[in-house]
Design a protein that fits this description.
Residues 30-99 form the Cupin type-2 domain. By secondary structure, the protein is mainly beta. Helix content is 14%, strand content 42%. The chain contains two helices and nine strands.
Length: 123
């Protein structure tokens, strides 16, 4: 069993992206997006993604629609849908996300978006 006090774990991480758990069919990842930062415009072919926001405020840009997100919000991104999440606040935008199936290397830690981008482009 893997048990997480997920909001606390996410809040305590300053890393842009940290893979907490990887199973055969899904993956749990926490993210911290700095003020003015973003995840980056992307599409996951064949991978659904669910994002739950722990703290901060931002914009969800999913499939051509834009919506504000804040603590307690959840956004589902179906496979093949273009999306980006942007921090519009003065504090970090903290979230956890579940990918199905897994998207990132098991145990991956990327301290910054630039580091995460380099890892994705070298894979």
């Amino acid at each position: 069993m893997h048990h997480f006090t997920i909001a606390t774990v996410a809040e305590e991480s300053a890393d842009f992206r940290r893979v907490l758990w990887t199973g055969e069919k899904s993956q749990l990842v926490i993210m911290t997006i700095p003020p003015g930062g973003e995840i980056g415009d992307e599409v996951h072919e064949g991978i659904d993604q669910i994002l739950t926001f722990v703290s901060g405020v931002g914009e969800a840009r999913v499939g051509g629609e834009t919506s504000e997100v804040r603590q307690g919000d959840l956004v589902a991104v179906p496979a093949g849908t273009r999306h980006n999440f942007v921090n519009t606040g003065v504090n970090p935008l903290v979230l956890y996300t579940v990918y199905g199936p897994p998207e990132h290397a098991d145990g991956a830690v990327h301290r910054t978006k630039e580091e995460a981008d380099r890892a994705e482009h070298s894979a």
